[in-house]
Design goal:
This protein has 494 residues and is mainly β. The protein contains 4 helices and 32 strands. It folds into 2 domains: 103 residues, Sandwich (Immunoglobulin-like); 298 residues, 3 Solenoid (Pectate Lyase C-like).
């Protein structure tokens, strides 16, 4: 009798594991006019978890060819940091950004595009934004009772009917699904249009920000040719990388209503082990940000949130290029939450991070922005070629006792003697009395200026304990200097 009861219990447990039942899917079976960048979404009657076996196949109904295939037995990406390589060098020649149309359809993901060696470890890889070196990605992400399937980027075409086959094991406790078809929109939006719509529910021209930026032509010639990507309110869990864009506006419907995010960091998408990180112009692009705009100029970002869902070195937003403008943008990251290499103006933005929250070469002008950090608010790395980070009427919220405004420690025998950090009329909330540090002697020539810092009640800050390398500006004696730093054009050069 005990054996029978035990066997019945085991059977019941097995039935429970198989109890997940789909209650809806997107696209609906036999749906038409589906965006080519769509994700596949299945809702179940109970909480689900991504499996580690099974195959996802996408079949072109006309040709009967498999156009995309995902093997769930392949891990998404690394979970342990790779060892340091002291012999790593910056790319000996500038990285070539202007290349042909490279997608998963015509190029094997992971093929080196520069001098870096190919990483031959077996992980899920997809080409995003023409970057053949590829990104690791999660083919299935589950939240509660919803499972979202991410196909390889750019595999679907306009005006095609596709069949989806999901094998057993793709979702734990589910036997899979066949006989699921949909048809994509007949044609792409005309390139003559000056505005396109992104909507997570599929009602726009594209379902993802990445899809819209893949459609966007490279290097629009002038302001007269500017195009707008309007992102409707919604949750956009996607890894975004685009490059070579110019004169494009990316505007969310609302800053809190449009959240573009992804669980990415330096461990999951590491820099090549033989190449140093992208501190210098023309070096290998970083892959660790949730959203990265690389070699992009004259861009405008408005009313949108960029967020990483990971800890570690994990930017919410990485911006490389010149003459870029951001307004009402919320950046959420961890270490190096916002990395900016090139000239940028930030207006009414919120930046939240874990430490070195603002990183980069500058110049960046921050006006009426709020920065929160657990560690140092910034690590400035500009050279004498340009200004660094200038903050006008900004608020610094320290989330711990370690939240210094700026640090310039010895960095493996290297430092940034021309680094520049200037605070004008800023509110300091909970910032330690020394304010700045550590600052190594090798950075003693850095320009660390402060004027009229005050607490959240408007009272002047006691600066007597400031690091000796910090200069307090005088309203009369330094009036000319204060005036220059108050002029954003003087700082960013445009």
């Amino acid at each position: 009798m005990k054996r029978i009861i035990f066997s019945l219990a085991i059977l019941a447990m097995g039935m429970k594991l198989q109890a997940q039942t789909p209650i809806s899917c997107y696209p609906l079976n036999q749906a038409k006019d589906i965006n080519i960048d769509t994700h596949l979404i299945i809702e179940f009657d109970s909480e689900v978890k991504a499996g580690n076996k099974g195959i996802i196949s996408i079949i072109d109904k006309t040709t009967r060819k498999v156009v995309d295939r995902i093997d769930m037995s392949i891990p998404a990406g690394p979970t342990d940091g790779q060892p340091k390589n002291p012999a790593a060098i910056y790319t000996p020649v500038p990285y070539i950004y202007k290349v042909g149309n490279i997608t998963n359809r015509n190029t094997r993901p992971g093929i080196p595009s520069g001098v870096a060696k190919e990483d031959k470890r077996k992980y899920q890889k997809t080409i995003i934004g023409g970057f053949s070196d590829a990104f690791h990605f999660y083919p299935v992400i589950c939240h509660g009772n919803k499972a979202t399937i991410y196909l390889h980027n750019n595999m679907l075409e306009y005006g095609h009917e596709y069949e989806v086959r999901i094998g057993k094991g793709v979702i734990e406790g589910w036997n899979g699904k066949k006989e699921w078809t949909f048809t994509t929109r007949s044609v792409a939006p005309s390139l003559d249009r000056d505005k396109i719509i992104v909507a997570a529910d599929g009602s726009g021209d594209f379902s993802t920000l990445q899809g819209a930026m893949d459609w966007m032509p490279d290097s629009l010639p002038s302001e007269e040719n500017r195009k707008t990507v309007l992102v409707k309110n919604g949750d956009y869990e996607e890894l975004v990388y685009f490059r070579n864009k110019r004169f494009v506006i990316i505007e969310g419907e609302s800053v809190d209503g449009v959240v573009v995010h992804y669980p990415n960091n330096e461990v999951f998408n590491p820099h090549p082990i033989d190449i140093k990180t992208n501190e210098l112009k023309g070096t290998f692009p970083s892959r660790r940000a949730a959203v990265a705009a690389d070699n992009c100029s004259d861009m405008i970002f408005k009313n949108i949130t960029f967020k990483t869902d990971c800890k570690g070195q994990a930017e919410g937003f990485l911006l490389n290029g010149e003459r870029n403008f951001a307004q009402n943008v919320h950046v959420i990251g961890d270490g190096d939450a916002l990395q900016v290499n090139g000239s940028a103006y930030w207006l009414n933005c919120i930046i939240d991070g874990g430490g070195d929250t603002v990183l980069g070469r500058g110049p960046s002008y921050f006006n009426h922005c709020t920065i929160s950090s657990y560690g140092a608010f910034m690590w400035i790395r500009n050279t004498k070629e340009n200004h660094g980070n200038i903050f006008n009427d900004c608020t610094f919220k320290a989330m711990s006792q370690y939240a210094m405004i700026a640090r310039l420690p010895d960095n493996k025998g290297k430092n940034y003697p021309d680094a520049e950090c200037v605070l004008l009329n800023c509110t300091l909330d909970g910032v330690p009395s020394e304010g700045f540090g550590p600052i190594d002697a090798s950075a003693s020539t850095a320009k660390l200026y402060e004027f009229n810092s005050h607490d959240k009640d408007g009272k002047s800050i006691d600066v007597s304990g400031r690091d000796k390398h910090v200069r307090q500006l005088d309203a009369i004696k330094d009036a000319e200097l204060i005036g220059k730093y108050s002029d954003a054009k003087w700082v960013v050069g445009w």
